[in-house]
Amino acid sequence: MGKNGCGKSTLLSLLKNEISADGGSMTYPGNWQLAWVNQETPALPQPAIDYVIDGDREYRQLGGRAPAG
User: Fold this and answer.
1) 68: phi > 0 → left, psi -120 to 50 → alpha, else beta; which?
2) What angle do CA 52, 61, 63 make, to 5 degrees?
3) Within a domain: residue 55?
4) Does the residue 28 lie in any domain?
5) Domain assignment present for 26
6) Which residues form the ABC transporter domain (predicted)?
């Protein structure tokens, strides 16, 4: 996590090949698989964080909640 404006979304956009870097290069191991959930999920009735937490049934059954924020 980082402060607003520090480049978190830009880094993710680079990793997802949505944008190109102005210079340099970026590589990661070929056996890595990247996955993400968009912050906004207009097609879902719940916030993205709840959608992700719902994917971990054991955590949710233990009373797992999204962090306050």
Assistant:
1) beta
2) 85
3) yes
4) no
5) no
6) 1-31
